[in-house]
Design goal:
The chain has about 350 residues and is an alpha/beta fold. It contains eleven helices and ten strands.
Length: about 350
């Protein structure tokens, strides 16, 4: 069992913690070698930490056995290079607590949990939600991040979130990705005070600048371009708000395309285009359409070229490999040990759609 540092003794987690996509082969099975390359890329591209088994990881199409394999594969491969958040959402309190304890024992730095919900109509009232998080908190010794997202269909007021932060030992981080997120972050920080250790932005950074202005200290985004998000967050946290806004303007077309058009398929399409993974297959029946895939990859390369035109390097020297850039840059900029010259996948989710995009 991994030794656990008391939550109160842990330094606050800040910065960019993108969601790691689950990598599948062309037949839909787990591609663990591709998963490891994906993780290496995301760390080398400057991620301050990672989140696994989230909604953008397609956690809802994974078996329990696959979840366990992916969790151990990721945590063992990361090997402490960056902190890892494990999503352990489940409707059952007992199941969620067991998942969370297992994640802690495997080396997770934090767990992220949505309020309990099932289907379109089964919801839990505030009293039950409070009890749910209390019992999960009692089972572990690491921080809990509450994911406040529309997919749960559960309204969590800022006042209720702040009360849980004050009353439940390990509830201290909040990923806010609902309409008017910045206003909710601002109210949450005001009401919760020191109990709000980590007010975070989400939803692929589509509201990142407003959320940073409201006091967000972390961002959980898609995994395709962590170095781009780092430019924005690092500049803002260093007090250079105008520079952060300029970086945001450069990356916003790609952020918008991921958030509004391609969704969770965007990250894997970009990684495949950059030679990080073999297949960009998804299981969730939200296959990116061929033309949309081509547009997504083109926008990524256009964003990179704009950054280069402003005198920025294709990649940032955050990791061991100074040139481990986002997956959309020239292949020559990707470290040889990360790059694989895979044949194009001609399946419905394959790279053929982007073949004409250079």
């Amino acid at each position: 069992m991994t030794a656990t540092i008391p939550a109160t003794a842990q330094p606050p987690y800040r910065g960019v913690f993108p969601v790691v996509p689950t990598i599948f082969d062309a037949q839909g099975g787990l591609d663990l070698d591709g998963q490891r390359r994906c993780i290496d890329f995301m760390i080398d591209a400057g991620s301050n930490g990672l989140c696994i088994l989230a909604n953008f990881s397609e956690q809802f199409v994974l078996t329990d056995e696959e979840r366990t394999v992916l969790m151990h594969t990721a945590l063992e491969h990361v090997a402490g290079r960056v902190p890892v958040i494990v999503t352990t959402t489940h409707f059952s309190t007992q199941a969620c607590a067991a998942r969370s304890r297992s994640a802690q024992d495997a080396g997770a730095a934090m767990v992220m949990i949505m309020p309990p919900y099932h289907g379109a109509t089964i919801r839990v009232a505030e009293r039950g939600i409070h009890d749910f998080y209390t019992r999960v908190s009692d089972a572990i010794g690491i921080p809990i991040m509450i994911q406040d997202a529309p997919v749960s269909g559960t309204t969590l007021s800022a006042a209720f979130l702040a009360r849980m932060a004050r009353e439940i030992e390990h509830v201290s981080y909040f990923k806010i990705e609902v309409p008017q997120a910045a206003a909710k972050l601002r109210e949450l920080i005001e009401l919760g005070g020191d109990a709000i250790v980590g007010p975070w932005d989400g939803e692929e950074a589509i509201t990142l600048m407003a959320d940073l202005d409201a006091g967000a200290t972390g961002a959980m985004t898609g995994g395709g371009y962590p170095d781009g998000i780092r430019r924005i967050v690092d500049a803002y946290q260093a007090g250079r708000a105008e520079e952060a806004a300029a970086h945001y303007q450069q990356w916003l077309p790609l952020i918008n395309y991921e958030n509004r058009q391609a969704g969770l398929a965007a990250c894997k399409a970009l990684m495949q285009a950059g030679g990080i993974i073999r297949s960009d297959a998804v299981r969730c029946n939200r296959c990116i359409r061929p033309r949309a895939r081509g547009c997504c990859v083109w926008r990524g390369r256009w964003t990179r070229s704009c950054c280069a035109g402003h005198g920025e390097r294709g990649g940032l020297p955050y990791g061991k490999h100074q040139h481990s850039v986002g997956c959309l840059a020239d292949r020559r900029a990707i470290p040889a040990r990360r790059r694989r010259r895979f044949p194009r996948d001609r399946s419905s989710n394959g790279a053929a759609a982007g073949a004409g995009v250079r």
